[in-house]
Specification:
The structure is a single chain. The chain is 26% helix and 17% strand. The longest helix is centred in the N-terminal third of the chain and has 25 residues, at 8-32. It contains 5 helices and 10 strands. Helix 1 (8-32) packs antiparallel against helix 2 (43-63). The chain has helices at residues 8-32, 43-63, 209-214, 228-241, 290-301, and strands spanning 74-80, 111-116, 126-132, 141-146, 156-161, 169-174, 199-203, 250-254, 259-260, 267-268. It is of the alpha+beta class. It starts with 7 loop residues before the first helix and ends with a helix. It has a domain at 74-85 and 104-174: WRKY domain (N-terminal domain of TfIIb, Single Sheet). The chain binds a DNA duplex through residues 89, 91, 96-97, 99-103, 105-107, 127-132, 134-135, 141, 143, 145, 147, 158, 232, 236, 239-240. It comes from Phaseolus vulgaris (Kidney bean). Residues 25-42 have a biased composition (Polar residues).
DNA sequence: GTAATTTGACCTCA
DNA sequence: TGAGGTCAAATTAC
């Protein structure tokens, strides 16, 4: 696609990301104790700036209807916009038993198609209701529907590994969420601290080995501070496909209430959302040098 | 005990 | 007619 039609929202988002990257670099310098650029900046302030940058960028991208970057970690293709087929199945009046298999086939419904390097966590809760071997396809197709179907939410999705590139997962969304589970699926606020600017970031572990090695895909017990939707989805997908942790993306909930202990090299997680045993995790290895930061930001900025 | 997943059967539609 | 989508009982996980 060409970039001529880049919207102002996207340009602003990119500006925000660049600003965030600068702040992250400064933060990196502070953590490394290099103090270059004469940066005596307050690390707390820098963290807030980085988080603010991500938040603003994601808001901008999500509010931009022309943006293809609703999910910055994936390639999204608005496959087709079709009218919802209002035709109700004529099975409505039949008994529960005889209604088996009665469904609206997605002939004219709205669908979105996207590919990502790991099963996408879009912030919504999904329940798997089927798996099907597809003719001439190496991998089965998995069928999910919104957990809040009882609230009338008809959103569904199909997930299937891409044959040509098994690292990729193709996700097709059918219908929109009418449930209130999340109004903005790309930005997940930490339910424990709703006032915080916590947000959900997706880092590609293949492109960012530092994340991969530092953060193997955790279970919920192992990492209770991670978004529950993240851990549940990863757990489910891994169980189905036995995805080794090294091939799944690592999505982490970054909380804004990071604090710093006396040593500038040690960044300590002391979020209220952490269980005591996870407080004191040293993430300085993650934010070690600015070269790695560039690597982290690279996928976000490639849309320029 | 409850919720989620698995899987074979069933149904629709091209 | 068969591929694909869904149902729902059985099973598993928490």
């Amino acid at each position: 696609m060409d970039n001529l039609g880049v919207s102002t929202s996207r340009m602003k988002a990119i500006e925000e990301l660049l600003r965030g990257r600068d702040s992250a670099k400064q933060l990196s310098s502070v953590i490394n104790g290099s103090g270059e650029n004469g940066s005596s900046a307050n690390p707390k302030k820098l963290v807030k700036e980085v988080l603010m940058s991500f938040t603003k960028s994601l808001l901008l991208l999500n509010s931009d209807p022309t943006s293809e970057s609703h999910d910055v970690s994936s390639v999204q293709v608005w496959d087709s916009l079709k009218q919802e087929d209002s035709q109700e199945s004529n099975c409505k009046n039949s008994t529960v038993k005889s209604r088996r298999g009665c469904y609206k086939r997605s002939r004219m419904e709205q669908l979105r198609e996207m590919e990502s390097e790991a099963p996408i966590d879009d912030g919504h809760q999904w329940r798997k209701y089927g798996q099907k071997e597809i003719l001439n396809a190496k991998f089965p197709r998995n069928y999910y529907r919104c957990t809040h179907r009882d609230q009338g939410c008809s959103a569904k999705k199909q997930v299937q590994r891409v044959e040509e590139d098994p690292i990729l997962y193709k996700t097709i969304y059918h219908g929109d969420h009418t449930c209130k589970s999340l109004e903005n699926p790309q930005i997940i606020l930490d339910p424990v601290s709703p006032s915080s600017s916590s947000m959900f970031l997706s880092f590609n572990s293949l492109e960012n080995p530092v994340f991969n090695s530092s953060f193997p895909t955790p279970s919920k017990q192992e990492c209770p501070f991670l978004s529950s939707s993240f851990t549940s989805s990863v757990k489910r997908e891994c169980k189905e496909e036995v995805i080794p942790p090294s091939t799944s993306s690592n999505d982490y909930l970054i909380s804004s209430d990071l604090t710093f202990d006396d040593s500038p090299r040690h960044v300590t997680l002391s979020s209220s959302t952490l269980d005591s045993e996870y407080k004191g995790v040293d993430i300085s290895d993650v934010l070690y040098d600015s070269a790695q930061l560039d690597h982290v930001f690279e996928p976000f900025l490639q849309f320029r």
